[in-house]
Design a protein that fits this description.
Length: 105
């Protein structure tokens, strides 16, 4: 007497295959916001350096517009230092990530 609700050992039909969910096989695509968050967490000094560079630039331009040459010149020097710090942060992050990749191999 056949059991009710038992599974068949026959190969699945096309209809059964099309109904199965294979979404777990492919990874979920990374959204731009998730990618940005991942990059910021990996190297937080780069966005800080970019923010400092923009702040120095805006401050320097406002001082230039007001005619305060001394403050404008000082702000532009701060901007150059902030840009240099950002470049150093980028290079440092690349060196660290390269060292981690080599260590993990």
């Amino acid at each position: 007497m056949p059991e009710t609700g038992s599974t068949s050992l026959a190969p699945p039909t096309d209809v059964e295959l099309s109904r199965e969910d294979y979404s777990w096989l492919t990874p979920e695509p990374e959204t731009p916001a998730k990618k940005m968050s991942r990059k910021v967490m990996a190297n937080p000094l780069v966005p800080i350096g970019c923010g400092l560079t923009v702040a120095a630039l805006v401050y320097g331009l406002t001082q230039f517009k007001r005619g305060n040459q001394r403050s404008s010149q000082m702000a532009m020097r701060m901007r150059v230092l902030a840009q240099g710090g950002t470049i150093i942060a980028v290079l440092g992050g690349l060196m660290v990530s390269g060292a981690v990749e080599r260590r993990d191999k």
